[in-house]
Design a protein that fits this description.
By secondary structure, chain A is of the alpha/beta class. Chain A contains five helices and five strands; from the N terminus they run E-H-E-H-E-H-E-H-E-H. Classes of the chains: A alpha/beta, B alpha+beta. At the A-B interface, helix 1 of A face helix 11 and helix 12 of B.
Chain lengths: ~120, ~550
C-alpha cells in the first residue's frame, strides 16, 4: 500500500465500482465501494475516508445532494465528481460547492491518478 | 284587342306623324276605291286596288289588324258588287269579284305571315341582346381576370407557317428564337374586365388593349403552350404561366381558354386568368415548414436515440476500459499478479457482454418499426418534388430541369422516403450554389434505366463541386461543411436508399458542380432493412 488512505467510490453501477476499485488497488490505493449516497452516509467509519469519487446521477440522493450534506465536513473539498452528464450547470454547482474535480466518464485514469497523487500523496 | 302595331313611346314624333299620314292615306284610298267600284261602271276589277290599301296598312297594323283590314276591304268589295250590279249579274262581273277577293285574301295572308316572321325575328333579336347583356355582366363583374383576345392575326401567322410546311411547332420555336415575340405581337387584347386591370397593376382599360407582348414575358411557358394548342386545333388549354404588370412585377397565374370548334369568332376569344401568386407563396411556406418539421423531427429522433444509446453504452465501456487498465497493471507487475489480472479480464468480458446486449436491444427495437412499400412511378414523383420546391428554386434563381427518358418501370419504395431524399439532394445543391455564389445555377434531375434491373435518378448541379478530400466522407454520419449542419442528411439519405437495396453515390462533374446518383432496383421486392442494420452491415443479428 502506497499510504493508509482510503478512497470512497459512490456509484450505482456495480461494474464501475468494481473496475475502479481494482484499478485503484493496482495503484496501491485502498477503497470502499458504496452503491448509493445513503449507503455512504450510514457507513460507520466515515471519518476514515480521505477522498470521495462521486457519481452525479444515482437513484435516491444525487451526487450534488450528498455534496450539500457534507458541505461542513472536512471532506467537502476532496470530492471528485465523475459523470457522463457534462452539463455546465451541474459542473458549476459541483465546483462552487467545493469539489476538487469534475471528470467525464469514461474516466481518464491518468488524470485521476495524478489528481489523487496531489490530493493524498503527501499523507 | 290591339290593331295598331305601335304602342305609345315606341315611335318618335316624326314617325308617329308619318304613321298617321299613312293611315289617313290608306283610309282615303279605300274610300276612293269603294266609290269608284260602287258608282262607276268600269269593266275591270277595281276592287284589286284594295291590295294597295292593305300593303300601306300593314305598316301600322298588328296581325289582328291585318286580318280585320282584309275583312273590311272584302266587305266593301262585296257591298259595291251588290249595290252596283244587284244579285243577278253576269258571270264576268262575278268572276271579277272572285278575282279581287282572292287577291285580297292572298295579300292579307302574306302580310299576316310577314308580320309573324317580323315578330319572331324581333323576339330572337331580343334574346340575343339579353344573352349578350348577361355575358357582358359576367365578364365585367367576374373576380376572375378575363381577356378578350383577337386571334385572327395569330391564325394568319400560323396558317402561313403551315403552308411553309411546318408541322412540329415545338421544333420550329426552338429554331426560331424570335417566334415568341412574333406571337405576342400577333395576339391582341380587345377587351378586359376590372379584375384584369388589377392584375396588370391598376391601369386603365385602354392601356390594357393591344398586343399582349407588354404583359406576357417571352419565356412564359404558357405562351408557347397556348400557341401550340391553337396550332394543333385543341379545344381547350389550361396551364400555369407568368404575367408581368405595368410596374414590371411578375405574378404566377393559371390560364384557361376554350377555342371555338369551327374557327369562327376568332376576333373575340375569352381567356381566363387566376392569380396564383399568393397561393403559390402559401404553398411554398407550407412546404418549407413541412420540410423543416421533417428535418427537425428526424434530427431530434436521431439526436434523442443517439444520446440515449451513448449514455447506455458509456457505463459498460467506461468499466471495460478501467478493467483493461487494471488487468495490464497486474500483468506488468514484477512478479505479475495473474490471479488479479484474470479477475479483471473476466470483468472485461462481462462489461463487453453488457455493451453488446444494449446494441442487440436497440437493433431489435428499430427492426420492429414497420416500413411500407409501394410501387412508385419516378417521373411524377420528380415532377411533384419540383413543384414542391418551385418557390424556393424561384427565390434563389435556380432553374431545375427534369429529363425523363423512356418510360421507366415503377420502383418498390416508400414515396415519402424517396421524396425526402430528393428534397435533401436538391436542397443541398441549391445551398451549395448559393454559398459559392455560382454564376450559373442549374440543377438537372435525370431519370434513366441502369441495366435491366435498375433505374437511376441523378441530381447534378453547377455549384463548386466537392473537394477531393471530402468526396469519400460526405456520406459519413456527422460529416458536415455547413456551420449549423448536423451532418446527418446525406448519411440518412444513403441508408434510406440502401435499405431499399439501392446505392447512393457522388462524383464531381467534368465541368462545374457535382452529381449525386441514386440507383434503385426495380421489380424485386427487397425486404426493407432498417437504418441501423445498414450502418451495422454484417452484424450478428438481422
Amino acid at each position: 500500500m502506497k499510504s493508509n488512505c482510503i478512497i470512497a467510490i459512490v456509484d450505482d453501477d456495480e461494474a464501475i465500482r468494481e473496475a475502479l476499485g481494482d484499478v485503484l488497488r493496482s495503484y496501491g490505493y485502498e477503497s470502499r465501494a458504496f452503491s448509493s449516497a445513503e449507503d455512504f452516509l450510514t457507513y460507520g467509519e466515515r471519518s476514515s475516508i480521505d477522498c470521495i469519487l462521486l457519481d452525479v446521477k444515482m437513484p435516491g440522493l444525487s451526487g450534488l445532494e450528498l455534496q450539500e450534506i457534507l458541505r461542513d465536513s472536512p471532506i467537502s473539498n476532496r470530492i471528485v465528481f465523475m459523470t457522463s452528464h457534462q452539463e455546465d450547470i451541474i459542473r458549476d454547482t459541483a465546483v462552487n460547492g467545493g469539489a476538487c474535480a469534475f471528470l467525464g466518464k469514461p474516466v481518464d485514469m491518468e488524470l485521476l491518478i495524478g489528481l489523487l497523487g496531489r490530493l493524498l500523496g503527501n499523507r | 284587342m290591339r290593331l295598331w302595331k305601335w304602342q305609345a313611346g315606341d315611335r318618335s314624333a316624326t314617325q308617329e306623324q308619318n304613321d298617321v299620314a299613312m293611315a289617313l292615306t290608306a283610309l282615303s284610298n279605300a274610300a276612293a276605291v269603294f266609290i269608284i267600284d260602287t258608282f262607276t261602271s268600269i269593266e275591270s276589277a277595281v276592287a284589286v286596288f284594295y291590295v294597295i290599301v292593305m300593303l300601306m296598312a300593314s305598316d301600322f297594323l298588328t296581325r289582328r289588324g291585318i286580318v280585320a283590314g282584309g275583312a273590311l276591304c272584302a266587305a266593301l268589295c262585296v257591298t259595291s258588287y251588290f249595290v252596283s250590279h244587284g244579285v243577278d249579274d253576269d258571270l264576268a262581273t262575278f268572276l271579277r269579284l272572285v278575282g279581287s277577293l282572292s287577291a285580297l285574301a292572298i295579300t292579307t295572308a302574306l302580310l299576316f305571315k310577314n308580320e309573324t316572321s317580323r315578330l319572331e325575328l324581333l323576339a330572337s333579336h331580343n334574346q340575343t341582346r339579353r344573352s349578350e347583356y348577361r355575358y357582358r355582366s359576367i365578364f365585367q363583374q367576374s373576380r376572375i381576370a378575363l381577356w378578350e383576345q383577337d386571334l385572327t392575326e395569330l391564325k394568319t401567322l400560323l396558317d402561313r407557317l403551315r403552308a411553309d410546311g411546318v408541322t412540329d411547332i415545338a421544333k420550329y420555336a426552338r429554331n426560331n428564337p424570335r417566334f415568341p415575340a412574333a406571337c405576342t405581337s400577333a395576339i391582341r387584347t380587345v377587351a378586359v374586365n376590372e379584375a384584369t386591370l388589377e392584375i396588370l397593376g391598376n391601369i386603365t382599360h385602354d392601356q390594357a388593349l393591344g398586343p399582349i407582348g407588354r404583359f406576357i414575358p417571352h419565356d412564359c411557358p404558357a405562351l408557347f403552350g397556348f400557341v401550340k394548342a391553337f396550332f394543333e386545333g385543341q379545344r381547350r388549354y389550361e396551364a400555369k404561366g407568368r404575367i408581368r404588370d405595368s410596374h414590371g412585377n411578375e405574378s404566377v397565374v393559371l390560364l384557361a381558354v376554350e377555342f371555338p370548334e369551327d374557327q369562327t369568332g376568332l376576333d373575340r376569344i375569352v381567356v381566363g386568368l387566376v392569380d396564383l401568386t399568393q397561393h403559390e407563396a402559401a404553398q411554398a411556406t407550407m412546404m418549407a415548414a413541412q420540410t423543416e418539421l421533417a428535418r427537425a423531427s428526424r434530427a431530434s429522433t436521431v439526436g434523442a436515440l443517439s444520446a440515449s444509446i451513448a449514455h447506455e453504452l458509456n457505463q459498460p465501456l467506461g468499466a471495460l476500459l478501467m478493467n483493461a487498465e487494471a488487468c495490464l497493471r497486474w500483468l506488468r507487475r514484477d512478479p505479475p499478479d495473474l490471479a488479479a489480472a484474470g479477475k479483471a479480464a473476466e470483468r472485461m468480458m462481462r462489461d463487453g457482454q453488457r455493451a453488446s446486449e444494449i446494441v442487440k436491444t436497440t437493433k431489435a427495437m428499430l427492426a420492429r418499426t414497420p416500413v411500407a412499400t409501394e410501387k412508385i412511378d419516378l417521373a411524377p414523383l420528380v415532377e411533384e418534388t419540383k413543384a414542391l420546391l418551385e418557390y424556393e428554386l424561384d427565390r434563389q434563381s435556380v432553374s431545375l430541369e427534369v429529363r425523363t427518358g423512356a418510360k421507366l418501370p415503377p420502383v418498390p419504395a416508400a414515396k415519402s422516403e424517396l421524396q425526402q431524399v430528393l428534397i435533401n439532394l436538391i436542397t443541398n445543391a441549391m445551398q451549395a450554389m448559393q454559398e459559392a455564389r455560382s454564376p450559373t445555377r442549374e440543377i438537372a434531375v435525370k431519370l434513366a434505366s441502369a441495366g435491366h434491373s435498375h433505374v437511376s435518378i441523378s441530381v447534378s448541379d453547377t455549384g463548386p463541386g466537392i473537394s477531393p478530400d471530402s468526396l469519400d466522407k460526405v456520406f459519413a454520419p456527422y460529416f458536415t461543411t455547413k456551420p449549423a449542419g448536423m451532418g446527418m442528411g446525406l448519411a440518412i439519405c444513403k441508408s434510406t436508399i440502401e435499405a431499399r437495396g439501392g446505392k447512393l453515390s457522388v462524383r464531381n462533374n467534368d465541368g462545374a458542380g457535382a452529381t449525386f446518383q441514386i440507383v434503385l432496383p426495380v421489380g424485386i421486392e427487397v425486404r426493407p432493412k432498417r437504418l441501423y442494420d445498414v450502418l451495422q452491415a454484417g452484424g450478428p443479428l438481422h
